[in-house]
Write a structure and sequence with these properties.
Layout: H1 15-44, H2 48-81, H3 87-115, H4 120-126, H5 130-139, H6 146-155, E1 161-166, E2 172-177
Antiparallel strand pairs: 1-2
């Protein structure tokens, strides 16, 4: 509410922001699904070393996406702290980036599941970088957190409520959902 009934730093998603968020996260989810399906298809007819190669390429692509997502978060935070981005616009960026981070994180999970069935020797030869994957997932932790996911739920219209954001000592998100 804008009439002083809520604390100064509490905000809520607008309908327009929710629609924009849904469009963007649907795009991300679809492209994530397409990539997973094409990996699946390629995997079927491949031999061991080709499978290792496919997993290494997909992992490199996911690490690149993770880095891009973390960079986008950093840029949005800088813009927000500089006053170039409103709190609700910043929160919307975080919600979209949270969705993207979750899609990437699921991609890494799928890779790990697949990698179990491929020889460690072949994976090493192909340059499959398990520790690089872990590091990328760790960098996404802010965006795959409970707070970021709750923000995403509000910005995708799954939940209604308000949120507060704090960026002073790292990203901190508190969300209050309306039950019902």
């Amino acid at each position: 509410g804008g009439n002083g009934s809520t604390a100064a730093n509490e905000s809520a998603a607008t309908t327009g922001q929710q629609l924009a968020t849904i469009i963007e996260i649907t795009d991300d989810e679809v492209s994530g699904d397409v990539e997973a399906a094409s990996l699946e298809a390629a995997f079927e007819g491949a031999n061991e070393s080709e499978r290792a190669e496919l997993l290494a390429e997909r992992a490199a692509s996911l690490r690149e996406q993770a880095n891009g997502t973390v960079t986008a978060q950093r840029e949005a935070t800088v813009a927000y702290e500089a006053g170039d981005l409103s709190r609700t616009a910043y929160a919307q960026r975080l919600a979209v980036l949270s969705s993207r981070a979750n899609t990437i994180d699921r991609g890494f999970e799928r890779l790990d599941e697949r990698a179990v069935d491929v020889s460690a020797l072949e994976l090493r030869a192909a340059g499959y970088d398990r520790s690089g994957n872990e590091a990328a997932r760790d960098r996404l932790a802010d965006l795959t957190s409970v707070g970021a996911s709750a923000l995403l739920a509000q910005y995708s219209g799954v939940q209604r409520g308000e949120f507060t954001l704090e960026t002073e000592n790292g990203l901190s998100i508190e969300v209050e959902n309306e039950d019902g």
